[in-house]
Amino acid sequence: MPPATQRGVPGRPVTVSEAMLKVLRLGLTGAVAAAVVAVGIGYLVDGGAGAVGGLLGIAVPVGFLAVTAVVGLVTARLAPHQLAAAVMGSWLIKIILLMVVLWLLQGRDFFSTWMFFGAFLVGTFGFLALEAVILYRARLAYVNVDSGHGEDGEGGGR
To answer: What number of other Cβ atoms are within 10 A of residue 85's Cβ?
Structure first.
């Protein structure tokens, strides 16, 4: 087997599935750690309401952003334009769901809105940064390395 396709070889191209699994694994691990910190800070700042706000603020973006990774994982074997359509469709659904969640939380007093907002920002930007770094470093191949052809089946040589 050529070195470029062996598992564990540094610098080898990885599959979309491998990259998405890594995003999920590291993202969920980071989310648990962030939730513990957010709950702790929230409790110190605003008691029980702050703790709930911190937990919700981490849970909402991480849950929604994890859906993108799951959709990428489930549709990884599709053509790139189909994968992109599935991810974009899931984003549209998540935007609508986010509006519904925020509408349902509006005016409620069981959580601290400021802790929710702060944790929401940290959770959103943290998960997006993690996802971007993992996918940037993944060396996802655009061509099928087994056949030497591009995604359209045409020869890739010049």
So the answer is: 13
Report the predicted TM-score, pTM, of the whole model to 2 decimal places: 0.71
Q: Give the count of beta carbons closer than 10 Å to the beta carbon of residue 87.
A: 15
Contact (Cβ atoms closer than 8 angstroms) between residue 112 and residue 45: yes
Query: What are the beta bridge partners of residue 149?
Result: 144, 155
Dump pLDDT digits (tens) for 32-81.
999 999 999 999 999 999 999 999 999 998 888 888 888 888 887 888 78
Give the CA angle between residues 141, 143, 145 to the nearest 5°.
Answer: 85
| Structure tokens belonging to residue 9 | 């070889």
Please compute Rg for the chain using Cα positions.
20
Residue 139: how many CB atoms within 10 A of its CB? 12
Compute the residue count for the chain.
Answer: 158
Q: Which of 153, 126, 111 is nearest to 23 (CA)?
A: 126
